[in-house]
Amino acid sequence: MDDDVAKRGSTSDERDDGPHGSRDTRFFGQPWELVHIFGVEMWERFSFYGMQGILLIYMYYSVADGGLGIDQTVAAGIVGAYGGTVYLCTIVGAWLADRLFGSERVLFVSAIVIMSGHVALALLPGVSGLGVGLVLVAVGSGGLKANATAVVGTLYAPGDPRRDAGFSLFYLGINLGAFLGPLVTGFLQSDVGFHWGFGAAAIGMAVGLIQYSFGRRALPPESRVVANPLPRNRYAPMAGIAAAALLVIVALVLLGVIRADNLAGVVIVIVLGAAIAYFALIISSKRISADDRSRVIGFIPLFVVNVGFWSLYQQQFTVLTIYSDQRLNRSILGWEMPVSWVNSINPIFVIILSGVFAAIWTRLGRRQPSAPVKFALGAIVMGGAFLLFLPWANGAPNSTPLLAVVGILLVFTVAELFISPPGLSVTTKLAPAAFHTQMVALYFLSVSLGTSIAGWLAGFYDPSDEVPYFLVLGLIAVALGVALWLASRPVLALMRGVR
Protein backbone atom coordinates (compact mmCIF):
# COMPACT_ATOMS: atom_id res chain seq x y z
CA MET A 1 0.00 0.00 0.00
CA ASP A 2 1.48 3.38 -1.00
CA ASP A 3 1.42 6.54 1.09
CA ASP A 4 -1.64 8.12 -0.56
CA VAL A 5 -3.76 5.01 -0.01
CA ALA A 6 -2.51 4.77 3.55
CA LYS A 7 -3.45 8.39 4.20
CA ARG A 8 -6.97 7.83 2.82
CA GLY A 9 -7.35 4.72 4.94
CA SER A 10 -6.23 6.45 8.16
CA THR A 11 -8.45 9.43 7.45
CA SER A 12 -11.45 7.13 7.06
CA ASP A 13 -10.60 5.33 10.29
CA GLU A 14 -10.33 8.63 12.17
CA ARG A 15 -13.83 9.48 10.96
CA ASP A 16 -15.38 6.20 12.15
CA ASP A 17 -17.49 7.90 14.84
CA GLY A 18 -18.31 11.02 12.81
CA PRO A 19 -21.08 11.66 10.30
CA HIS A 20 -18.90 10.47 7.42
CA GLY A 21 -17.45 7.50 9.25
CA SER A 22 -17.46 3.89 8.22
CA ARG A 23 -19.88 3.12 11.11
CA ASP A 24 -22.53 5.50 9.79
CA THR A 25 -25.58 3.42 8.81
CA ARG A 26 -28.35 6.03 8.48
CA PHE A 27 -29.14 5.41 4.78
CA PHE A 28 -30.33 1.78 4.67
CA GLY A 29 -27.19 0.66 6.46
CA GLN A 30 -24.95 2.94 4.39
CA PRO A 31 -23.36 6.37 5.10
CA TRP A 32 -25.96 9.17 4.98
CA GLU A 33 -23.90 11.10 2.41
CA LEU A 34 -24.78 8.43 -0.14
CA VAL A 35 -28.28 9.96 -0.34
CA HIS A 36 -26.92 13.11 -2.04
CA ILE A 37 -25.15 11.20 -4.81
CA PHE A 38 -28.08 8.77 -5.02
CA GLY A 39 -30.41 11.74 -5.69
CA VAL A 40 -28.45 13.56 -8.35
CA GLU A 41 -27.68 10.31 -10.14
CA MET A 42 -31.35 9.29 -10.04
CA TRP A 43 -32.50 12.52 -11.70
CA GLU A 44 -29.62 12.48 -14.16
CA ARG A 45 -30.65 8.97 -15.20
CA PHE A 46 -34.28 10.13 -15.42
CA SER A 47 -33.25 12.76 -17.94
CA PHE A 48 -30.68 10.56 -19.74
CA TYR A 49 -32.88 7.50 -20.25
CA GLY A 50 -35.99 9.57 -20.73
CA MET A 51 -34.32 11.32 -23.65
CA GLN A 52 -32.69 8.15 -24.97
CA GLY A 53 -36.00 6.28 -24.88
CA ILE A 54 -37.39 8.51 -27.64
CA LEU A 55 -34.13 9.51 -29.36
CA LEU A 56 -33.90 6.74 -31.98
CA ILE A 57 -37.52 6.97 -33.10
CA TYR A 58 -37.22 10.79 -33.15
CA MET A 59 -34.43 10.43 -35.69
CA TYR A 60 -36.01 7.85 -38.00
CA TYR A 61 -39.69 8.82 -37.75
CA SER A 62 -40.85 10.90 -40.71
CA VAL A 63 -41.12 14.68 -40.49
CA ALA A 64 -44.90 14.28 -40.73
CA ASP A 65 -44.78 12.19 -37.54
CA GLY A 66 -42.64 14.75 -35.74
CA GLY A 67 -39.26 13.12 -36.44
CA LEU A 68 -36.25 14.01 -38.57
CA GLY A 69 -36.63 11.34 -41.29
CA ILE A 70 -33.07 9.96 -40.93
CA ASP A 71 -32.35 6.49 -42.36
CA GLN A 72 -33.04 3.86 -39.67
CA THR A 73 -29.62 2.16 -39.85
CA VAL A 74 -27.83 5.51 -39.77
CA ALA A 75 -29.98 6.62 -36.83
CA ALA A 76 -29.13 3.45 -34.87
CA GLY A 77 -25.44 4.04 -35.56
CA ILE A 78 -25.74 7.61 -34.27
CA VAL A 79 -27.39 6.37 -31.07
CA GLY A 80 -24.55 3.88 -30.54
CA ALA A 81 -21.91 6.50 -31.30
CA TYR A 82 -23.59 9.00 -28.98
CA GLY A 83 -23.75 6.43 -26.18
CA GLY A 84 -20.11 5.52 -26.76
CA THR A 85 -19.13 9.20 -26.72
CA VAL A 86 -20.86 9.66 -23.37
CA TYR A 87 -18.59 7.07 -21.80
CA LEU A 88 -15.58 8.28 -23.78
CA CYS A 89 -16.07 11.70 -22.21
CA THR A 90 -15.50 10.12 -18.80
CA ILE A 91 -11.79 10.44 -19.66
CA VAL A 92 -12.12 14.21 -19.78
CA GLY A 93 -14.18 14.29 -16.61
CA ALA A 94 -11.76 12.02 -14.78
CA TRP A 95 -8.71 13.98 -15.94
CA LEU A 96 -10.27 17.26 -14.81
CA ALA A 97 -11.02 15.68 -11.43
CA ASP A 98 -7.62 14.07 -10.86
CA ARG A 99 -5.53 16.95 -12.20
CA LEU A 100 -7.46 20.19 -11.60
CA PHE A 101 -10.67 20.29 -9.59
CA GLY A 102 -11.48 17.08 -7.71
CA SER A 103 -14.37 14.72 -8.38
CA GLU A 104 -17.14 16.55 -6.51
CA ARG A 105 -16.66 19.89 -8.26
CA VAL A 106 -16.54 18.29 -11.72
CA LEU A 107 -19.71 16.36 -10.88
CA PHE A 108 -21.57 19.59 -10.02
CA VAL A 109 -20.55 21.47 -13.18
CA SER A 110 -21.29 18.43 -15.34
CA ALA A 111 -24.87 18.37 -14.06
CA ILE A 112 -25.31 21.95 -15.29
CA VAL A 113 -23.96 21.04 -18.75
CA ILE A 114 -26.34 18.06 -18.98
CA MET A 115 -29.35 20.22 -18.19
CA SER A 116 -28.27 22.69 -20.91
CA GLY A 117 -28.14 19.85 -23.45
CA HIS A 118 -31.67 18.73 -22.69
CA VAL A 119 -32.88 22.31 -22.96
CA ALA A 120 -31.26 22.51 -26.43
CA LEU A 121 -33.03 19.32 -27.55
CA ALA A 122 -36.33 20.69 -26.28
CA LEU A 123 -36.09 24.18 -27.78
CA LEU A 124 -33.85 24.05 -30.87
CA PRO A 125 -35.51 22.58 -33.98
CA GLY A 126 -34.19 20.01 -36.48
CA VAL A 127 -30.74 18.55 -36.85
CA SER A 128 -29.08 21.59 -35.24
CA GLY A 129 -30.94 21.03 -31.98
CA LEU A 130 -30.10 17.32 -32.14
CA GLY A 131 -26.38 18.01 -32.63
CA VAL A 132 -26.02 20.70 -29.96
CA GLY A 133 -28.13 18.77 -27.47
CA LEU A 134 -26.35 15.43 -27.88
CA VAL A 135 -22.89 17.01 -27.65
CA LEU A 136 -23.75 18.82 -24.40
CA VAL A 137 -25.43 15.78 -22.84
CA ALA A 138 -22.53 13.53 -23.87
CA VAL A 139 -19.88 15.84 -22.39
CA GLY A 140 -21.84 16.48 -19.20
CA SER A 141 -22.79 12.84 -18.67
CA GLY A 142 -19.18 11.79 -19.17
CA GLY A 143 -18.08 14.20 -16.45
CA LEU A 144 -20.80 13.10 -14.07
CA LYS A 145 -20.51 9.33 -14.52
CA ALA A 146 -16.92 8.69 -13.50
CA ASN A 147 -16.98 11.27 -10.75
CA ALA A 148 -20.26 10.19 -9.14
CA THR A 149 -18.82 6.69 -8.87
CA ALA A 150 -15.53 8.01 -7.50
CA VAL A 151 -17.34 10.12 -4.88
CA VAL A 152 -19.30 7.06 -3.73
CA GLY A 153 -15.97 5.29 -3.26
CA THR A 154 -14.76 8.02 -0.87
CA LEU A 155 -17.59 7.21 1.56
CA TYR A 156 -16.05 3.86 2.54
CA ALA A 157 -12.91 2.98 4.44
CA PRO A 158 -10.58 0.47 2.76
CA GLY A 159 -11.85 -3.06 3.43
CA ASP A 160 -15.37 -1.95 4.37
CA PRO A 161 -17.51 -5.04 3.49
CA ARG A 162 -20.53 -2.80 2.79
CA ARG A 163 -18.92 -1.33 -0.33
CA ASP A 164 -20.53 -3.68 -2.87
CA ALA A 165 -23.91 -3.34 -1.16
CA GLY A 166 -23.51 0.46 -1.21
CA PHE A 167 -22.80 0.42 -4.93
CA SER A 168 -25.87 -1.77 -5.44
CA LEU A 169 -27.98 0.81 -3.56
CA PHE A 170 -26.41 3.55 -5.69
CA TYR A 171 -27.35 1.46 -8.71
CA LEU A 172 -30.93 1.38 -7.41
CA GLY A 173 -31.03 5.19 -7.71
CA ILE A 174 -29.76 4.95 -11.27
CA ASN A 175 -32.50 2.54 -12.21
CA LEU A 176 -35.28 4.35 -10.39
CA GLY A 177 -34.55 7.31 -12.66
CA ALA A 178 -34.15 5.03 -15.67
CA PHE A 179 -37.60 3.54 -14.95
CA LEU A 180 -39.45 6.85 -14.59
CA GLY A 181 -37.74 8.74 -17.43
CA PRO A 182 -39.00 6.74 -20.45
CA LEU A 183 -42.52 6.56 -18.97
CA VAL A 184 -42.80 10.34 -18.74
CA THR A 185 -41.06 11.23 -22.01
CA GLY A 186 -42.79 8.41 -23.92
CA PHE A 187 -46.23 9.55 -22.73
CA LEU A 188 -45.50 13.17 -23.70
CA GLN A 189 -44.01 12.15 -27.07
CA SER A 190 -47.09 10.08 -27.92
CA ASP A 191 -49.59 12.74 -26.81
CA VAL A 192 -48.05 16.13 -27.57
CA GLY A 193 -44.75 15.58 -29.43
CA PHE A 194 -41.06 14.80 -29.13
CA HIS A 195 -39.92 18.22 -27.89
CA TRP A 196 -42.25 18.04 -24.90
CA GLY A 197 -40.56 14.76 -23.99
CA PHE A 198 -37.13 16.35 -24.26
CA GLY A 199 -38.41 19.24 -22.12
CA ALA A 200 -39.42 16.81 -19.37
CA ALA A 201 -35.87 15.43 -19.39
CA ALA A 202 -34.53 18.98 -18.89
CA ILE A 203 -36.87 19.57 -15.95
CA GLY A 204 -35.83 16.30 -14.34
CA MET A 205 -32.15 17.25 -14.53
CA ALA A 206 -32.95 20.66 -13.06
CA VAL A 207 -34.62 18.99 -10.06
CA GLY A 208 -31.58 16.79 -9.52
CA LEU A 209 -29.23 19.76 -9.75
CA ILE A 210 -31.20 21.74 -7.15
CA GLN A 211 -31.32 18.78 -4.77
CA TYR A 212 -27.59 18.12 -5.08
CA SER A 213 -26.65 21.78 -4.62
CA PHE A 214 -28.10 21.67 -1.09
CA GLY A 215 -26.34 18.45 -0.07
CA ARG A 216 -22.95 18.64 -1.76
CA ARG A 217 -21.18 20.42 1.11
CA ALA A 218 -21.86 17.48 3.42
CA LEU A 219 -19.72 15.15 1.31
CA PRO A 220 -16.35 14.11 2.80
CA PRO A 221 -13.25 16.23 2.04
CA GLU A 222 -11.77 13.29 0.11
CA SER A 223 -14.36 13.88 -2.62
CA ARG A 224 -12.71 17.23 -3.43
CA VAL A 225 -9.10 16.05 -3.29
CA VAL A 226 -7.06 16.58 -6.48
CA ALA A 227 -5.15 13.30 -6.58
CA ASN A 228 -2.42 14.33 -9.02
CA PRO A 229 -2.40 18.14 -9.41
CA LEU A 230 -1.30 19.52 -12.76
CA PRO A 231 1.66 21.96 -12.44
CA ARG A 232 0.64 25.50 -13.37
CA ASN A 233 3.33 25.70 -16.05
CA ARG A 234 1.48 22.95 -17.93
CA TYR A 235 -1.88 24.71 -18.02
CA ALA A 236 -1.19 26.52 -21.30
CA PRO A 237 0.20 23.47 -23.18
CA MET A 238 -2.77 21.34 -22.12
CA ALA A 239 -5.21 24.05 -23.23
CA GLY A 240 -3.42 24.16 -26.57
CA ILE A 241 -3.72 20.38 -26.97
CA ALA A 242 -7.44 20.55 -26.21
CA ALA A 243 -7.98 23.34 -28.74
CA ALA A 244 -5.99 21.48 -31.40
CA ALA A 245 -8.01 18.28 -30.83
CA LEU A 246 -11.25 20.24 -31.22
CA LEU A 247 -10.03 21.83 -34.46
CA VAL A 248 -9.05 18.41 -35.84
CA ILE A 249 -12.53 17.04 -35.14
CA VAL A 250 -14.19 20.04 -36.79
CA ALA A 251 -11.90 19.72 -39.83
CA LEU A 252 -12.63 16.00 -40.20
CA VAL A 253 -16.36 16.69 -40.10
CA LEU A 254 -16.09 19.49 -42.68
CA LEU A 255 -13.94 17.31 -44.96
CA GLY A 256 -16.49 14.48 -44.78
CA VAL A 257 -14.15 12.02 -43.07
CA ILE A 258 -16.50 11.83 -40.08
CA ARG A 259 -20.08 11.36 -41.28
CA ALA A 260 -23.36 10.30 -39.75
CA ASP A 261 -23.20 6.93 -41.50
CA ASN A 262 -19.74 6.00 -40.15
CA LEU A 263 -19.93 7.71 -36.77
CA ALA A 264 -20.19 4.48 -34.76
CA GLY A 265 -17.09 3.04 -36.45
CA VAL A 266 -15.12 6.25 -35.83
CA VAL A 267 -16.00 6.20 -32.13
CA ILE A 268 -15.03 2.50 -31.88
CA VAL A 269 -11.57 3.23 -33.29
CA ILE A 270 -11.09 6.27 -31.01
CA VAL A 271 -12.22 4.44 -27.88
CA LEU A 272 -10.09 1.37 -28.62
CA GLY A 273 -7.04 3.59 -29.13
CA ALA A 274 -7.80 5.53 -25.95
CA ALA A 275 -8.18 2.33 -23.92
CA ILE A 276 -4.87 0.91 -25.13
CA ALA A 277 -3.14 4.23 -24.44
CA TYR A 278 -4.68 4.47 -20.98
CA PHE A 279 -3.61 0.97 -19.97
CA ALA A 280 -0.10 1.68 -21.22
CA LEU A 281 0.02 5.03 -19.38
CA ILE A 282 -1.06 3.60 -16.03
CA ILE A 283 0.96 0.37 -16.21
CA SER A 284 4.16 2.22 -17.17
CA SER A 285 3.75 5.00 -14.58
CA LYS A 286 6.47 5.37 -11.96
CA ARG A 287 3.85 6.64 -9.50
CA ILE A 288 2.41 3.17 -8.89
CA SER A 289 3.74 0.19 -6.94
CA ALA A 290 4.35 -3.34 -8.23
CA ASP A 291 1.08 -4.48 -6.60
CA ASP A 292 -0.81 -1.63 -8.26
CA ARG A 293 0.68 -2.55 -11.64
CA SER A 294 -0.31 -6.18 -11.25
CA ARG A 295 -3.87 -5.19 -10.30
CA VAL A 296 -4.23 -3.01 -13.40
CA ILE A 297 -3.03 -5.90 -15.57
CA GLY A 298 -5.55 -8.14 -13.82
CA PHE A 299 -8.26 -5.67 -14.79
CA ILE A 300 -7.63 -6.27 -18.53
CA PRO A 301 -9.62 -9.57 -18.78
CA LEU A 302 -12.49 -7.91 -16.91
CA PHE A 303 -12.32 -5.01 -19.38
CA VAL A 304 -12.57 -7.35 -22.39
CA VAL A 305 -15.53 -9.29 -21.01
CA ASN A 306 -17.25 -6.04 -20.04
CA VAL A 307 -16.96 -4.83 -23.65
CA GLY A 308 -18.69 -8.00 -24.83
CA PHE A 309 -21.42 -7.66 -22.22
CA TRP A 310 -22.26 -4.02 -23.02
CA SER A 311 -22.19 -4.58 -26.78
CA LEU A 312 -25.24 -6.80 -26.23
CA TYR A 313 -26.86 -5.04 -23.29
CA GLN A 314 -26.85 -1.59 -24.91
CA GLN A 315 -28.82 -2.91 -27.88
CA GLN A 316 -31.84 -2.08 -25.76
CA PHE A 317 -31.49 1.38 -27.33
CA THR A 318 -30.75 0.25 -30.89
CA VAL A 319 -31.99 -3.17 -32.06
CA LEU A 320 -34.51 -3.65 -29.24
CA THR A 321 -36.03 -0.20 -29.89
CA ILE A 322 -36.51 -1.08 -33.57
CA TYR A 323 -37.79 -4.52 -32.54
CA SER A 324 -40.27 -2.93 -30.11
CA ASP A 325 -41.48 -0.46 -32.75
CA GLN A 326 -41.93 -2.99 -35.55
CA ARG A 327 -42.04 -6.54 -34.18
CA LEU A 328 -43.49 -6.33 -30.67
CA ASN A 329 -47.20 -6.57 -29.96
CA ARG A 330 -47.64 -3.48 -27.74
CA SER A 331 -51.45 -3.58 -27.74
CA ILE A 332 -52.96 -3.80 -24.24
CA LEU A 333 -56.80 -4.01 -24.22
CA GLY A 334 -56.94 -1.92 -27.37
CA TRP A 335 -54.41 0.67 -26.14
CA GLU A 336 -50.98 0.81 -27.76
CA MET A 337 -48.12 1.23 -25.33
CA PRO A 338 -45.51 3.86 -26.35
CA VAL A 339 -42.31 2.38 -27.78
CA SER A 340 -40.11 3.97 -25.10
CA TRP A 341 -41.99 2.25 -22.27
CA VAL A 342 -40.17 -0.98 -23.15
CA ASN A 343 -37.03 0.78 -21.84
CA SER A 344 -38.68 1.02 -18.40
CA ILE A 345 -39.06 -2.76 -18.04
CA ASN A 346 -35.41 -3.47 -17.25
CA PRO A 347 -35.20 -0.78 -14.53
CA ILE A 348 -38.29 -2.26 -12.81
CA PHE A 349 -36.48 -5.55 -12.44
CA VAL A 350 -33.31 -3.80 -11.28
CA ILE A 351 -35.27 -1.93 -8.61
CA ILE A 352 -36.77 -5.22 -7.41
CA LEU A 353 -33.63 -7.35 -7.65
CA SER A 354 -30.86 -4.90 -6.71
CA GLY A 355 -31.90 -5.07 -3.07
CA VAL A 356 -31.93 -8.87 -3.30
CA PHE A 357 -28.44 -8.94 -4.79
CA ALA A 358 -27.19 -6.40 -2.23
CA ALA A 359 -28.57 -8.56 0.60
CA ILE A 360 -26.98 -11.68 -0.89
CA TRP A 361 -23.55 -10.05 -1.20
CA THR A 362 -23.85 -8.62 2.32
CA ARG A 363 -24.91 -11.97 3.79
CA LEU A 364 -22.13 -13.84 2.01
CA GLY A 365 -19.55 -11.23 2.97
CA ARG A 366 -16.08 -12.50 2.10
CA ARG A 367 -17.58 -15.80 0.89
CA GLN A 368 -19.27 -14.17 -2.12
CA PRO A 369 -18.03 -14.98 -5.65
CA SER A 370 -14.95 -13.06 -6.75
CA ALA A 371 -15.22 -10.24 -9.29
CA PRO A 372 -13.93 -12.40 -12.20
CA VAL A 373 -16.58 -15.05 -11.49
CA LYS A 374 -19.31 -12.38 -11.27
CA PHE A 375 -18.17 -10.94 -14.61
CA ALA A 376 -18.14 -14.43 -16.15
CA LEU A 377 -21.66 -15.15 -14.94
CA GLY A 378 -22.88 -11.79 -16.25
CA ALA A 379 -21.54 -12.50 -19.74
CA ILE A 380 -22.94 -16.03 -19.83
CA VAL A 381 -26.41 -14.92 -18.72
CA MET A 382 -26.36 -12.02 -21.19
CA GLY A 383 -25.57 -14.40 -24.02
CA GLY A 384 -28.44 -16.59 -22.87
CA ALA A 385 -30.79 -13.60 -23.06
CA PHE A 386 -29.98 -13.14 -26.76
CA LEU A 387 -30.55 -16.84 -27.39
CA LEU A 388 -34.04 -16.42 -25.90
CA PHE A 389 -35.02 -14.26 -28.90
CA LEU A 390 -34.72 -17.31 -31.17
CA PRO A 391 -38.20 -18.83 -30.60
CA TRP A 392 -39.77 -15.64 -32.02
CA ALA A 393 -37.17 -15.03 -34.74
CA ASN A 394 -38.36 -14.21 -38.28
CA GLY A 395 -41.95 -13.70 -37.11
CA ALA A 396 -44.59 -11.42 -38.62
CA PRO A 397 -44.83 -7.68 -37.72
CA ASN A 398 -46.11 -7.11 -34.19
CA SER A 399 -46.10 -10.87 -33.54
CA THR A 400 -43.82 -11.11 -30.49
CA PRO A 401 -45.83 -11.24 -27.24
CA LEU A 402 -45.07 -8.47 -24.76
CA LEU A 403 -44.58 -11.04 -22.00
CA ALA A 404 -41.81 -12.69 -24.03
CA VAL A 405 -39.80 -9.46 -24.11
CA VAL A 406 -40.55 -8.89 -20.42
CA GLY A 407 -39.06 -12.31 -19.69
CA ILE A 408 -36.01 -11.66 -21.85
CA LEU A 409 -35.42 -8.32 -20.12
CA LEU A 410 -35.62 -10.09 -16.76
CA VAL A 411 -32.64 -12.17 -17.92
CA PHE A 412 -30.94 -8.94 -19.09
CA THR A 413 -31.36 -7.64 -15.53
CA VAL A 414 -29.89 -10.70 -13.83
CA ALA A 415 -26.87 -10.44 -16.13
CA GLU A 416 -26.53 -6.73 -15.41
CA LEU A 417 -26.58 -7.18 -11.64
CA PHE A 418 -23.83 -9.80 -11.83
CA ILE A 419 -21.51 -7.51 -13.77
CA SER A 420 -22.32 -3.81 -13.45
CA PRO A 421 -22.46 -2.86 -9.73
CA PRO A 422 -19.56 -5.24 -8.92
CA GLY A 423 -17.70 -3.76 -11.90
CA LEU A 424 -17.93 -0.25 -10.50
CA SER A 425 -16.90 -1.50 -7.08
CA VAL A 426 -13.92 -3.63 -8.13
CA THR A 427 -12.59 -0.77 -10.28
CA THR A 428 -12.34 1.52 -7.24
CA LYS A 429 -10.58 -1.29 -5.33
CA LEU A 430 -8.03 -1.95 -8.09
CA ALA A 431 -7.33 1.73 -8.79
CA PRO A 432 -3.87 3.10 -7.89
CA ALA A 433 -4.12 6.25 -5.76
CA ALA A 434 -2.62 8.50 -8.45
CA PHE A 435 -5.14 7.24 -11.03
CA HIS A 436 -8.20 6.78 -8.83
CA THR A 437 -10.82 8.56 -10.93
CA GLN A 438 -9.05 7.78 -14.19
CA MET A 439 -9.33 4.04 -13.47
CA VAL A 440 -13.07 4.55 -13.14
CA ALA A 441 -12.93 6.28 -16.52
CA LEU A 442 -11.07 3.27 -17.90
CA TYR A 443 -13.94 1.07 -16.71
CA PHE A 444 -16.37 3.35 -18.51
CA LEU A 445 -14.21 3.11 -21.64
CA SER A 446 -15.16 -0.56 -21.76
CA VAL A 447 -18.81 0.49 -21.59
CA SER A 448 -18.11 3.12 -24.28
CA LEU A 449 -16.56 0.56 -26.59
CA GLY A 450 -19.41 -1.88 -26.02
CA THR A 451 -22.05 0.81 -26.57
CA SER A 452 -20.44 1.96 -29.81
CA ILE A 453 -20.23 -1.64 -30.99
CA ALA A 454 -23.95 -2.01 -30.16
CA GLY A 455 -24.71 0.81 -32.60
CA TRP A 456 -22.42 -0.66 -35.25
CA LEU A 457 -23.93 -4.13 -34.85
CA ALA A 458 -27.42 -2.72 -35.40
CA GLY A 459 -26.47 -2.29 -39.05
CA PHE A 460 -26.34 -6.10 -39.37
CA TYR A 461 -29.77 -6.65 -37.86
CA ASP A 462 -32.24 -7.97 -40.47
CA PRO A 463 -35.83 -8.53 -39.22
CA SER A 464 -36.41 -11.02 -42.04
CA ASP A 465 -33.43 -13.20 -41.01
CA GLU A 466 -32.89 -12.79 -37.26
CA VAL A 467 -31.60 -16.27 -36.36
CA PRO A 468 -27.92 -15.70 -37.30
CA TYR A 469 -27.88 -12.33 -35.52
CA PHE A 470 -29.20 -13.49 -32.14
CA LEU A 471 -27.50 -16.91 -32.31
CA VAL A 472 -23.97 -15.72 -33.13
CA LEU A 473 -23.96 -12.82 -30.67
CA GLY A 474 -25.43 -14.97 -27.91
CA LEU A 475 -22.85 -17.71 -28.35
CA ILE A 476 -19.95 -15.22 -28.44
CA ALA A 477 -21.04 -13.74 -25.10
CA VAL A 478 -21.37 -17.20 -23.53
CA ALA A 479 -17.90 -18.15 -24.80
CA LEU A 480 -16.37 -14.98 -23.32
CA GLY A 481 -17.93 -15.73 -19.95
CA VAL A 482 -16.78 -19.34 -19.91
CA ALA A 483 -13.22 -18.29 -20.85
CA LEU A 484 -13.06 -15.81 -17.96
CA TRP A 485 -14.48 -18.33 -15.50
CA LEU A 486 -11.78 -20.84 -16.48
CA ALA A 487 -9.13 -18.11 -16.06
CA SER A 488 -10.53 -16.71 -12.79
CA ARG A 489 -7.74 -18.06 -10.55
CA PRO A 490 -4.84 -16.54 -12.52
CA VAL A 491 -6.76 -13.28 -12.79
CA LEU A 492 -7.30 -13.25 -9.01
CA ALA A 493 -3.58 -13.83 -8.52
CA LEU A 494 -2.87 -10.71 -10.57
CA MET A 495 -5.39 -8.72 -8.50
CA ARG A 496 -3.15 -9.19 -5.42
CA GLY A 497 -5.71 -9.66 -2.66
CA VAL A 498 -8.60 -7.76 -4.28
CA ARG A 499 -11.67 -9.93 -4.86
Count of strand segments:
2
State the helical fraction: over 70%
Mean pLDDT over the full residue set? 85
CATH architecture: Up-down Bundle
The N- to C-terminal Cα distance equals 16 Å
Query: Poorly predicted ranges (pLDDT <50, ≥5 residues)?
Result: 1-22
**How many H/I helices?**
18
**Which percent band covers the strand fraction?**
under 5%
**Rg over C-alpha atoms, rounded to the nearest angstrom:** 22 Å
CATH topology (fold) name:
Growth Hormone, Chain: A
What is the CATH C-level name?
Mainly Alpha
Relevant CATH superfamily: MFS general substrate transporter like domains
Region (Disordered): 1-24
Domain Major facilitator superfamily (MFS) profile: 1-492
Main location: membrane
Membrane topology: Multi-pass membrane protein
